[in-house]
């Protein structure tokens, strides 16, 4: 049986469980579209993905094939096993009403990836306050090494590009098709994923 | 009455409360010593300092005078009102037993800033799992803009250098004299602070 391909509509999110050893493929079918990825220990949701631990242990802000993603308890949650793009972000929190208000000046802001993740994760008893920095697949965030300036540029992903993660523990995963225009080169597209 | 100067012994940490409007001065008396700073909303400890929100809104990884530090709810918790050093880190989590085990290969690791913060914050009902990326005062972490490589170099702080924060809400604050040799140019020193 072919594992099901899940389509995440533009500006929405979803959540699902994975067993240790399963793989998750995140696909960008049209190209230049970011997907925010979060995960929690399925047996104790106080254990969550940690950018700070992961970047410290990697000694690199750009992660790719072979890199483990650590939890706040320094356990490996996911490992990147395949990555055809090679540029993702792990510095910035999911876009939210406040992002759109503070950065874009929107008066009636969309709930963003943060709101989409909060909604999708609520049935798993995960509170919005527990949403940390996400691993932002395909998000292209160069840093100026001298000034520290952060830029948000169009993703380097082309149509059909993907990356694959292996779960190293039983997980609850949240995943979005990112809602911020700047992150997605001005056009909000879908994301596909598959667990197998 | 002169506000009390608190001494934080090498490789230890402390916690205290601040009222909105008060200032916190963090002093590096001997120079080249990092202090990990965390804060929680005193009225609801689920609201906590967020590196991801702060860096996103600043569009810079290096923060200094005038920059607000945001919570996971996008509220301003602290504002940097004076900074004579100009280089601090907001990417890496507090050093921990696991840091010393994974990065330094220690077999009997010190509890690090993470353990010190967990201990100091426990009386305020803050759980270790709730400790996020800290604002690491005086920590000098350049990023290679091309490769994304993270370096940990000696702090730029000279003896007596300091930075001052203003609280924008009632806070519980955790603060350490950092325990990691590499972050402090190989010598673990004290930190001083003052709330007024």
UniProtKB/TrEMBL annotation, chains A, B:
UniProt name for this protein: Urea carboxylase-associated family protein
Boundaries of every DUF1989 domain copy: 7-172
Matches recorded under PANTHER family: RE64534P
Origin organism lineage: Bacteria, Pseudomonadati, Pseudomonadota, Alphaproteobacteria, Sphingomonadales
């Amino acid at each position: 049986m072919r594992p099901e391909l899940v389509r995440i509509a533009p500006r929405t999110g979803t959540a699902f469980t994975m067993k240790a050893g399963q793989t998750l493929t995140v696909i960008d079918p049209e190209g230049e579209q970011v997907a925010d990825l979060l995960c929690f220990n399925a047996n104790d949701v106080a254990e969550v993905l940690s950018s700070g631990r992961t970047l410290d242990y990697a000694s690199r802000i750009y992660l790719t094939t072979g890199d483990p993603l650590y939890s706040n308890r320094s356990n490996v949650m996911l490992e990147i096993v395949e990555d055809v793009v090679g540029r993702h972000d792990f510095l910035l929190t999911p876009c939210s009403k406040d992002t759109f208000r503070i950065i874009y000046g929107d008066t009636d802001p969309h709930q963003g990836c943060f709101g989409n993740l909060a909604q999708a994760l609520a049935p798993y008893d995960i509170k919005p306050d527990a949403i940390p920095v996400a691993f932002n697949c395909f998000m292209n965030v160069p840093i100026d090494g001298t000034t520290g300036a952060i830029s948000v540029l169009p993703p380097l992903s082309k149509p059909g590009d993907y990356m694959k993660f292996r779960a190293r523990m039983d997980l609850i995963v949240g995943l979005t098709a990112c809602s911020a225009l700047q992150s997605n080169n001005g056009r909000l597209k879908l994301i596909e994923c598959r667990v197998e």
